[in-house]
Design brief:
By secondary structure, this protein is mainly alpha-helical. The protein contains twelve helices and no strands. The mean pLDDT is 83.
Amino acid sequence: MLVSIMVYVIRVLRWQMLIKAIGYETKFHNTFAALSISYFVSFIVPRLGEVTRCLSVKKQHDIPFMKLLGTVIIERVVDIVSLIIVLLLTLILQFDQIIEFIKENVFQPFYEGVILKIIGGNTTVIIIVLSVIIVVTFLFYHFRKYIRERSPKLIVQFIEGLKEGLVSIAKLRQKKLFIFYTFLIWVCYYLMTYFWFFVFTETSVLSWGACLAILSIGTIGRSVPIQGGGMGAYHFLVTNVVVLYGVGASFGKTLATLIHAGQIFFTFAMGLIG
């Protein structure tokens, strides 16, 4: 829980750097509250939290919403790049386990569940695939005029917001500190996973490499845009990763449940405080 609070603190400090770079100042406690609320809202309605925290700061400090959104977009881009780096690092350091995971949970199910059935002439699968293609084509054709009319305005607004975010990065006076904050956030994420290993004797034997794999794959699970912070997807992915490191599936599932439940408790508590 203490490490989780540190993540919030560092994220607020990093976001304040971006806001300051576009010419505005925010109070720490207001920005901290906005971030806490955003995670709480995103848990219930995925991705809505990003809008909520911008609106919250806008209300407290009268900063233009689109400029704040631009800084949040850049934050997300930095997070995605960071995740890709962590995934590549995991692939390099835990190559055998990750390849085995991808083989068992991605390629094999897709091959057996889709490719073989299509090759075998499974009528149901073929009908579903064709139906999806037809529906998507129909919807695009039917709403093409609306898309043409609305898209330019939305795209312009998005580009303006992104431009503000890019400007904030370019104007950062302490770029190294920004990178250091980003590094610390991922160190905390790692520890938030690692400390849970010691709840059970069976999972306490998991190595640093297992923690890195769980962090990487689990983050993908949390990123799935479904309610409950990737509930279900996170449990499935983490359980399968734990099994690869020689721990039983039951303990893997329980570990995933504990980590996720702990984060739910923390997110709700901080959201209410915010």
